[in-house]
Design goal:
By secondary structure, the chain is an alpha+beta fold. The protein is built from 8 helices and 8 strands; from the N terminus they run βαααββββαααβββαα.
C-alpha cells in the first residue's frame, strides 16, 4: 500500500468544517444557547481569532491506507497487529457485542481489505499573544485559542476524511454532501478517534505512530500515549457501509489479560493504560 501522505491546510480551508456545537459545549453553552448575547460575543471573538490565525497557522495532517484484515479482535495493518477491545456488557439495544474489527474483512476469507489511519494537529504556540497581552494576563484569549484549536484539529480531519473517501481511497467517489450533512456523519464509513468510546485505549497511538510517523507533522507522544501538541487527533478510517460507532464500556479481568497478551505488554502496564475501563 502507499506510504503515508502529508496534507497541509490553511485555516480558511478548514474553518467551514468547524462543529460549533462542540465549541460552545467547551464553554458551557448548550446548543439552544447560541442566541445568548455571551454566546454571540464568544463566536465573534472566535471568528476574529480565526482571521488572525489564518496568516500564521497551517494545520498538518497525515494519513495512510493499509492493506488490512481482521483476525478475532485484532486488525492486521500492513503486517502490523493492531489489537482492539470488544464490548463485554450486553448492549442496551440487545444487539451483538461489537468490536471495530467486525467491520473489516476477516483474514480467513483470503482477500485483503483496506483500513485508513490518520493524524492531524494544530502547531503549538500559535497564534502569538497580542502585543498588549500574554497568556498569563489574558486567560480568556488563552482559553479561546485552545478551544478553537481543538475544533480546528477536528475540522481538519473532517476535510481530510472527505478527501480520502472521494479521492485517495475513493470508495465514495460520487459523494456530494453539504457541510451540515458531513457534520451529521451522513457519509459512508466511520472515523473512530483514539480516546473516544469505540477506540478508548490512548496507548494505541504508539502503534499508529509506527505506521504513520507522526513526528513528520510535529506530533510527539507522552509515556502514556497522549499527543503533543494538545490540539491533535488520530484514529482509524473504516469504509464498511454497516460500520457504526459504539462504546466499548467497562471490561473485565479476562479481557484485560487477553488484550495485554495481544499487545505484547505486561498486564500491569495495560491495567494502567485502561484504568478508566476497569
Amino acid at each position: 500500500m502507499p506510504d503515508p501522505q502529508l496534507l497541509t491546510y490553511r485555516i480558511r480551508e478548514v474553518a467551514p468544517y468547524i462543529n460549533w456545537v462542540y465549541f460552545y459545549h467547551a464553554w458551557g453553552f448548550k446548543p439552544t444557547d447560541t442566541g445568548h448575547p455571551q454566546a454571540r460575543q464568544l463566536q465573534a471573538d472566535a471568528l476574529r481569532l480565526l482571521d488572525e490565525m489564518d496568516s500564521t497557522v497551517s494545520l498538518r495532517c497525515i494519513f495512510r491506507l493499509c492493506r488490512a484484515n481482521a483476525e478475532g479482535d485484532d486488525l492486521w495493518l500492513d503486517g502490523t497487529r493492531f489489537p482492539l477491545l470488544r464490548q463485554q456488557r450486553p448492549p442496551a439495544n440487545g444487539g451483538p457485542h461489537l468490536c471495530l474489527s467486525d467491520f473489516v474483512r476477516p483474514l480467513s476469507c483470503g482477500k485483503a481489505d483496506t483500513v485508513g489511519l490518520f493524524a492531524a494537529t494544530v502547531p503549538a504556540g500559535h497564534p502569538s499573544p497580542s502585543p498588549a497581552s500574554t497568556p498569563d494576563n489574558d486567560p480568556y484569549r488563552s482559553l479561546l485559542v485552545q478551544t478553537l484549536s481543538d475544533r480546528l484539529a477536528e475540522a481538519a480531519t473532517e476535510r481530510l476524511h472527505l478527501y480520502v473517501r472521494t479521492k485517495a481511497w475513493a470508495y465514495a467517489p460520487d459523494e456530494h454532501l453539504s457541510i451540515p450533512d458531513l457534520l451529521a456523519e451522513r457519509f459512508q464509513g466511520i472515523r473512530p478517534a483514539v480516546g473516544y468510546p469505540s477506540l478508548p485505549d490512548q496507548s494505541v497511538n504508539f502503534i499508529l505512530d509506527q505506521l504513520l510517523g507522526m513526528s513528520s507533522i510535529g506530533i510527539t507522544l507522552t509515556e502514556n500515549g497522549a499527543m503533543h501538541p494538545h490540539s491533535s487527533v488520530s484514529g482509524l478510517m473504516l469504509a464498511h457501509p454497516a460500520a457504526r460507532y459504539f462504546s466499548v464500556g467497562p471490561i473485565g479481568q479476562d479481557q484485560l489479560c487477553d488484550y495485554a497478551r495481544r499487545r505484547g505488554l505486561p498486564v500491569e502496564v495495560m491495567r494502567k493504560f485502561l484504568a478508566a475501563l476497569l
